[in-house]
Amino acid sequence: MARDLAIHLVHHFFDVTVICPQPSRPESADYRRYSDSDSAVVIYEDGIKIVRLPSFAAPESRLLPRLYESWSFGRHVCRYLAKNLKKPDVMYVNAWPLFGQALIMRYAKLNMIHVILQIMDIYPDSLNGKLPTILHSIVSKPLTRLDTWIAQQSRFLIVISDNMRRTYIENRRVSPDRITTIPTWQDESLYENAPDRIDACHRYCVPNNLFTFLYLGNIGPVAGVDFLIRAFHEAAIDGAQLVIVGDGSAKADCIKLVGSLNAKRIHFVSDPDAANVPLLQSMAHVCLLPMKRGTGMSSIPSKLPAYLFSAKPVLATVDPDSDTARLIRESECGWIGNPEDLDWLASKMREITSMTIGELSILGKKGKAFGLAHYSKTLGVHRLADIVASFVNRTPERHALLSGL
Predict the structure, then answer these.
(1) Is 127 exposed, middle or buried (0-12, 13-18, 19+ CB in 10 A)?
(2) What domains are there in the chain, each with its CATH number?
(3) Could you read off the pLDDT of 179-225 as tens digits, one per residue?
């Protein structure tokens, strides 16, 4: 989102500087490692000045290193701003919660800079799946206070779902006129020409003559990929396969689970190139979206709009009151079951494989039409850019803009 925003603003004659950390995802990638003694690296892409800071990187999904990663990035941002950048009109902040956000927000407040804060996940709520239950009550209250302070200091807040907006209005006491929902968008142009399924299967060494359930996304501790594996194994569908695309900290455990179950026709595919998402999803007859109980109430996974643009039906196990469930119901693009209901998912998989290609195609087309109407890049980037531009002082002397932290 930050990259699309920056390019859009540059094309409309704004000065844009992007301040970001060094790439650190996925864990297996061979990125250059920085230390605190290194200086920032400045490059130019598409007319945008990009500053990569030597902050601490934590590729592995472990809580304490990730918290330190956030704090380190915030500290380096403030140092760089103080030494190298003229005071910007506005800062669009899409930074790791919570400590990095807090440091940047404090700097902006002291220097009277407007901040538009992008919220992708609600913290500390999103930590619940990563913490022992006994720690929830200990860390929840102070971190909620910190998140509330961060949100209230921002000039404007962008959230990605209506449930998230409701949370910030009711629980963080953000004024409704200072917060709006702009869903995570997808570049609809990437999906204009549907790739050939057989070619895609051949490229990724996946059989093309089987009914294919596909999951694409992070394979982390709260993704629920292990649940998909168990459900598909229990379904025992002779003419079907499960394709799991992605990487993450739980991938090795999922591969071991397949082995321990002696599960058949389950394939793992790695391809970090986001441009290949349409090609990867073309292998699917049905796309899968599992979410752990309680994790789907605050946002809509970015994989869901991508599934819609690929015109694939969606089989989801999510909280029934979540935005994700509401989207699937409104678009009429698939099926919704309760989170972690193994028997329901296995039964639904067996039922779906008996459907005709024509029936599946109708569901997929409904989803794509809904996605184009609500989750396209063209719509989203214009809405976000209009908000950012409204805080910029367009004079010859000052129109610098800081974007995409």
Answers:
(1) buried
(2) 2-185+376-403 (3.40.50.2000), 189-374 (3.40.50.2000)
(3) 999 988 889 999 988 899 999 999 999 999 999 999 999 898 778 89
